[in-house]
Design goal:
Layout: H1 2-22, E1 35-41, H2 48-67, E2 76-82, H3 90-99, E3 104-108, H4 111-124, E4 128-130, E5 144-146, H5 151-165, E6 170-176, H6 180-192, E7 198-204, H7 213-219, E8 224-227, H8 231-241, E9 250-253, E10 274-279, H9 288-301, H10 308-329, H11 340-352, E11 367-368, E12 374-375, E13 379-384
Amino acid sequence: MKLTKILALALCAVMALGTLAGCGSVNYAENNTEYVIGVSGPLTGSAAMYGVAVVNAAQIAVDEINAAGGLNGVMFKLVSTDDMNDATKISTNYSSMFEGGMQISLGTVTTQPGLEFKNLSADDNVFFLTPSASGDKIPENKNGYQMCFADGNQGKVAADFVNANYANTTIGVFYKSDEAYSKGIYDQFKANLDASVKVVETTFTDANATDFSTQIDTLKSCSFIFMPIYYTPASLFMTQAKDILAKKAVYYGCDGFDGIDNIEGFDIKSIPQAVTMLSHFNSKATEGPAKEFIDKYVAKYGKDTLNQFGASAYDCVYAIYGAMQKAISEGKEIPVTISASDLCDIMMEQFEGGYTYENGVTGEKIAWEKSGYVNKSAIQYVIKEAK
């Protein structure tokens, strides 16, 4: 009996330790002197324009909040890690931030790494509000939310635009079939497209992402081409097709087009066709919160990385700050050493309870559905008119 009791006690101890480790109850923030916000994004590599914009804009917001006194006198700190848009780097990045005291997060900048991040953060109950990881499954777990439009929403809104403007016509589509972002948008686009719109469809993969002559030949008679892809392959397609497609043709992309007019080595002015995109940010705004953000961003970082990814990140930081303020006003305690899990519970209560972020750079009266999807208006943004 004595041996049995000893074994039982030992088993209980092991189970208790396992429970602590499995529930994310270890408080790595117990020595924090600032609230720590983490983010992982491509700071180098082909998608670096997105990640750099997010970090720059988030830092502007953090600096402003701190200059105004922080949250009840407690400052914020932004910690960023480089994932190069590579999902295999997320586990290491996430661990370094979480074990370094991260209490809340902007998640990831792009979708593929975000699919890995969402599961790790769910295991530890870490709240995240991503500015730009737009995959439909990014907010699949209850701790995740998006400031950007989900891919499905982008596809539906794009289809609504085409239905209203190109009914009874034939349009072209060029998308990346082996990428969650691109295929996710196109699947929803196709599902919501009016039957009167005929589609000439062509695709590419990583294996054939340098020569688009075959795809261009397929689409050469189309006057409207929907391209739910990132700016690097889009700019290559436009360069190779500029003298083949009709000069009055229109390219129409989603948020992946953002920054295409600032790519090094790509002269968008040499492209005769119109380049447009679905967006929630007008980088040419002349008034309002968007104009104020543009002026601040350009003054500090220049125009090269000014895009909606950064604008969305700026809104993310302020939305998080506002939700924390609201929770405190309702009697919640948020000490600087609060664990990520405890803060997550507080933030989920706010976002599930109808919290609204007013007067954002990317929209007014921004709210969230229980699915984690954002609810705000979109704009049709013309990057470059046709020549």
